[in-house]
Amino acid sequence: MDFSLKTFMHAGIGGSGLGFGSSGFVPLLFPSMPFTDFMMYFGAIAGAVVFILLYLYFVWQDR
Questions:
Q1: DSSP character string of 32-44
Q2: What are the pLDDT digits (tens) for 5-52?
Q3: Which of 31, 55, 57, 59 could form a disulfide with 11 if both were Cys (CB 3.0 to 4.6 A apart)?
Q4: What CA–CA distance (Å, rounded) separates 42 from 19?
């Protein structure tokens, strides 16, 4: 697998969307915890970082 900037960006955007969407489950799991903007943005950033790191790992593994 060769490095592609387009795929790299897709990994970041897809991870951001997944993290943003999954952050909505926090109030369902912990009802006493209010849903804040920080949780929403942190979920998006964390998802993007995880997906980008996974992409870079698989590119590095395939070299």
A1: TSPP-HHHHHHHH
A2: 999 999 999 999 999 999 888 888 888 988 899 999 999 999 999 999
A3: 55
A4: 8
